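Summary for the lay section of the report: proteins are chains of building blocks that fold into shapes. Here we show the chain for Putative repeat protein (TIGR01451 family) and then a coded description of the shape we predicted for it.
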Amino acid sequence: MRRESGIFQGYFGPGNRAGRLIALASMLGAFIAASVSLCLGAVSAEAAAPSGYAPSTAWTVGAVASSPLPGNAAGFGAQIASNNSTGQQDMVLGTDTYSQDGINAPRFLPSAASVAALKDSCVVGRPVREQNNCASYLGTFTFPHPVIDPVIGIQMGGGGSAGGTQPYDWCVAGWNNTAIAAVNGVAPANGLLTLQSNSSTFVFANNALTLPQSYIDGTKCGAPTSYGIAYLKISGQVTSFRLANTWMQEVTKNTTNAVVSGVGVGGTTVNSYLPSADVSISKSAPATVASNGTIRWSIKVANNGPADSHGFIVNDAVPANVMKPAIVSAPSGCQLSGRNLRCSAAPPGCSGSANSTVPSWVDLACANSAQAGTTVLPAGSAFGPIVLSGVAPFAAGSVITNSATVFGTDSDPNLQNNDASVSTTVRAAPSLSLAKTADDSGVRNPARLGDVINYHFRSMNTGNTTLTQVQIIDRLPGLSALQYSWPGMPGTLLPGQSVTATASYRPTQLDIDAGHVRNTASGSANPPSGPAVIPTPSSTDTLLMAAPGISLTKTADASGVEIPARVGDVIRYHFRSQNTGNLTLTEVKITDNLPGLSALTYSWPGPVGRLLPGQEVTAMASYRVTQADIDAGHVQNTGTTVALIPPEKPISSLPSTVDTWFIDPAEAYLANTGAELGMSAWAIGFFGCGLALRLVSRRRKPTQTKSIST
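The coded shape description reads as follows.
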């Protein structure tokens, strides 16, 4: 039988695939060469890409293989697969594009230098069931940035060759054994690597993968072999790993002396997978807030999976137009420095920081790199809520936009949900205040007509919107026109501005009668939208001091009384009553209780019974002298004025008294001559003559009256 030899003989090319793995596996084996009859490898259905992991993207096959990392890790550049040493040329990469489901993976093959002694001497002359190591070669994968808990998929390859006619004279089985020679440049410690595939398919011990004996036994002449993909998880932070691949062969049958041909050297297809954790952030706040009101934001982080998250950082900068930012509540790991919120979630013994090259990536610094693989936020769980608060600005229409971001330590397949913004608008709250004061320095005590009250007004825009058509309204009758002092354009007040105004008022008699002037002012203004703004009315009450008073003067006219007085002579009385106070008097009445006095006849300056301050009323009455009056020698009479002052309170004047005396003839003579008793005889004679003449003429003279007015 003709022997076949050569490094690349019989490995699978793009057009000779044995089957397909699922898309996440992204690997193919490339294996076997056969001489006469070739047993092709078949993919094991049990091998599936690890849940929650994303494969690297297409490889560029050549002297080295490179591929971007998945998700946002692609920003770090390509991961590199290369031979261990250029000088040693331990391995080469397949020159074709070996792909599964459109995703390419590098295929390692031993170099010519590493298989110089291979050819058929590996199996020729070997007894049946003797296992031979035909070739070993090294390959290194380097990540452009440390990754956490990567999974590597290694497609275990194998095949068989046979000679002669069925049932064949001889058969040879070939397969790969693959060991993880180093992680991060050093030999991996026990427990650092874990097999993720079904353990019945592969044997994993001492950090090495091999196919079980059942595989070798199943490599029957003329029957297809089976192989699959092994998934190995490397725990912690990983920057590189090295594979040591060994091509194993065994003669499983040889019944002749024919030369046995070995199986062509098979390649090993390798791909990497990274945990894919879609961390997202959501934020909520009210749509509107009151001027200078408290605003609250609620922030929540969710891990949408499919993988667990190994850490993340939340950042939020409270807007500059918000005062007094504070944390209301938050999980541990959140701090507010000034306006900047930072929440860091990391495994124990680790701390996170934003990467300067890929801002959407968080780097972990751990005392022990293996700790980086600790789950911080399981898939499907949430972190938060984080509640922040602050004081909103004053100005209406101010928009408060707050944004928060979250970035994780793992590959994130969706960066569209890593930031969230929410806007809140300050509600328009138009408001107008009014204050009014009264200056009564121009009011005398007691108050009089002509006094002046000066009013001062101040209206302030206490809202957060500009007000136009601002006016102060005071409807007090008799008030002078308001004199305004505007801070800017007349009729317009910006928030916080005030307008002042003054007006004067002269109290009326009605005000004085009431004892005060109560005055209420209001106002109005127009906001940019909505109804007019009406301030709370402002009132003043100015006291007017009262001083009621009334006087009465009474006189008697005795010209109707003869000398000597006779019964029926007439005395006429005259009354004058004046309002000497500052209040209006009503129901004014002069009283005189002299029996026999006629009814008083009044002369009023206005309405009957009413006297304004300073006004007076006069009255007259008559009286006829009685014998009792003549016997008494005089008529004494007293009068009083009574009235009402507001509100219906009585007042009276002091009494006014007049005393009318009757004069006998002798007294009249003495009064007219000024003579004294003891006058000379001629005087007596003269008196007698005069008396005689008086009696003859019966001429009347006024009687003596005494008037007492109090």
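Put simply, here is one thing we learned. The domain at 277-426 is CATH 2.60.40.10 (Immunoglobulin-like).
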